[in-house]
């Protein structure tokens, strides 16, 4: 969860001013605010997320304790590949998250044969990642979805129109699932090189190499 800090500062002689920080991880914001509070010159410290939800120090500490045991700080890399010769699609997703003060990576792929284009495979790969989030128990949290498909990312960000009926159905399905889970979705476009892990998982699926693994990621 990302928040910004808003606070009032008073000098020893009583001059007061208001300050707002840049957006940052809630854990970092708490550390900074607690350190600033020790000066005794800070008042009205508040934390605000991008939906304008507000917490004071006590409330944010409680919020962070509640989500610590659940998957949070979630990022999903996804990629889909379509084989014209076999009419099969490979779906790949790599999910990074934190839980109980540890970092994890979940890798999952799937081979499907009901799709007709590469763009459908890209959408299906993203939906595959969302299904895995539901199984993990991710809900009512911000999630960043990262892919190299300009069509999928730009259509879901509503930067590009979606004229193809099948792709529109996929977009609706994804938006409905995201809404059901209460996820605050951010979509980010990267190069294929930056998405090589999900790309490899999709390629392995097309070769009928099934991957399902969860491992701890060391800092």
UniProtKB/TrEMBL annotation:
<dbReference type="InterPro" id="IPR036397">
    <property type="entry name" value="RNaseH_sf"/>
</dbReference>
<feature type="domain" description="RNase H type-1">
    <location>
        <begin position="70"/>
        <end position="207"/>
    </location>
</feature>
<dbReference type="GO" id="GO:0004523">
    <property type="term" value="F:RNA-DNA hybrid ribonuclease activity"/>
</dbReference>
<protein>
    <submittedName>
        <fullName>Ribonuclease HI</fullName>
        <ecNumber>3.1.26.4</ecNumber>
    </submittedName>
</protein>
<dbReference type="Pfam" id="PF13456">
    <property type="entry name" value="RVT_3"/>
</dbReference>
<dbReference type="InterPro" id="IPR012337">
    <property type="entry name" value="RNaseH-like_sf"/>
</dbReference>
<dbReference type="InterPro" id="IPR002156">
    <property type="entry name" value="RNaseH_domain"/>
</dbReference>
<keyword id="KW-0378">Hydrolase</keyword>
């Amino acid at each position: 969860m990302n928040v910004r800090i808003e606070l009032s500062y008073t000098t020893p002689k009583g001059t007061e001013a208001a300050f707002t920080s840049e957006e940052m991880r809630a854990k970092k914001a708490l550390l900074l605010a607690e350190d600033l509070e020790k000066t005794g010159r800070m008042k009205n410290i508040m934390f605000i997320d991008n939906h304008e939800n507000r917490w004071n120090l006590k409330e944010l500490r409680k919020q962070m304790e509640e989500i610590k045991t659940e998957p949070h700080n979630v990022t999903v890399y996804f990629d889909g590949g379509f084989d014209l010769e076999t009419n099969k699609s490979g779906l790949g997703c790599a999910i990074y998250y934190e839980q109980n003060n540890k970092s994890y990576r979940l890798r999952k792929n799937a081979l499907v044969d009901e799709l007709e284009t590469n763009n459908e495979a890209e959408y299906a790969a993203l939906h595959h990642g969302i299904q895995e989030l539901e199984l993990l128990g991710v809900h009512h949290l911000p999630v960043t979805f990262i892919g190299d498909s300009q069509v999928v990312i730009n259509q879901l960000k509503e930067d590009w129109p979606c004229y193809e009926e099948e792709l529109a159905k996929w977009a609706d399905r994804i938006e409905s699932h995201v809404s059901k889970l209460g996820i605050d979705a951010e979509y980010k476009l990267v190069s294929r090189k930056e998405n090589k892990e999900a790309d490899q998982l999709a390629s392995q699926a097309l070769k009928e190499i099934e991957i399902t693994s969860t491992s701890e990621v060391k800092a």
